[in-house]
Amino acid sequence: MYTIRYILGAALIIILAVVWNYITTSLSVRTFSRELGLKNIAATKTIVQKIDTHAHFLPPFYYDTLKRMGLDKEGPLNSMPKWNAKDHLAFMDKLGIETAILCISSPGARLPGHTLQEAGTLAREVNNFGHMMAVTYLGRLQFFASLVLPDVEGSIDEAIRALDTLEAAEGIHPTPKRGHKYVVRQTRKSGSLSPKKMEVLNSRGATIFVHPHSLPDTLNLEVPPFIVDFLLDTTRAAATLVMNNVTARFPNLKWILGHSCGFMPFAGYRIGSALSLVTGESAESFLRELRRFYVDTAVSSSPSALPSTIAFLTTEHLIFGSDYPFAPNMVIERETAQLDTFLKLELDSWHQINHRNVARVFGSRLNNRRKKLR
């Protein structure tokens, strides 16, 4: 009799232990954002993956052109990285990135010694290649169409072709003349912000991705531009846009500024106040326009950078970016881990930054293609 009781008691204890383990395991999965951090998100397969709005490609013919002109040594580590879709997709899978939106980086489509016509031809070839990648890897790769500045008529024609004909184009990536001007110049007939060009883009509700470029060669700076001056380039672009009322005059445009828009979030209040003194308009109006920008997290997810960016723009205007392949893989992995760690208690913010904000920026164009993937 006692033996049977002992057996039944032991069986009951085992059953209770199994039930308790199931309950606690289930709870830990449901509350992983609080208990375990976001490193377990990909493993659960219940969270929508990231959309990378700051990724680069170097089409083979573009890389060969840079090498032939001696420009292949100008990357961040004194070399231009080679790119292929297979390696990029493998890295995307490793980081849980579903879609990457590509563009070429500095020096862009207008190379030293090239005429506007030659630059325009190169930009079209780059855009055709981007379109081919988007069609071949539907839902995984997209691209920003490259435009050449300050060729107003040529860039308008290419913008229309890219947005209306190359249906894969998610937006526009303007590139200035190398070593001549900052990426965004003042509004004038021949400038990068010419009203005619802006009207065309505004009528289509285009998204414009502003990426930093090398500064004027005459500066002869000892520190490589990508270390410090890239951050100034996008910060200056933001100030130029709001000072010239571009964001207010063309409200249908959506802007993404790379690398957290440099130090704009940190200096936003100073910029707004200073512009008010220069123009006589209210600082509040400039701050309101500065807060309309979206910025990406590419190499900008440090514990000191994120609080400033979120404090000024909120998580609703921050989107994920990797800077692949110009940033080394280990740097991208570190930055992504820092972002996940910073957001590990805020699951909703994780969703916003990694995919929800991007879907809102691009609307049905990107969403429809991602649905086809599933």
Summed up:
Helix content is 52%, strand content 11%. It is α/β, with parallel strands linked by helices and 374 residues long.
Task: Describe the structure in your own words.
Pfam families: Amidohydro_2. Keywords: Decarboxylase, Lyase, Membrane, Transmembrane, Transmembrane helix. The protein is α/β, with parallel strands linked by helices and 374 residues long. It has a single domain (48-373), classed as TIM Barrel, CATH 3.20.20. The chain is 52% helix and 11% strand. The chain is built from 16 helices and 8 strands. The strands form 2 sheets. It has a 4-stranded parallel sheet with strand order 1-2-3-4. Helix 6 links the parallel strand 2 (97-103) and strand 3. Helix 9 packs parallel to helix 11 (264-279), helix 11 (264-279) packs antiparallel against helix 12 (283-290) and helix 11 (264-279) packs across helix 13 (305-313). The longest helix has 29 residues, at 2-30. The protein is globular, with a radius of gyration of 24 Å.
Features:
single chain, 374 residues, alpha/beta, TIM Barrel, 4-stranded parallel β-sheet, 16 helices, 8 strands, 52% helix
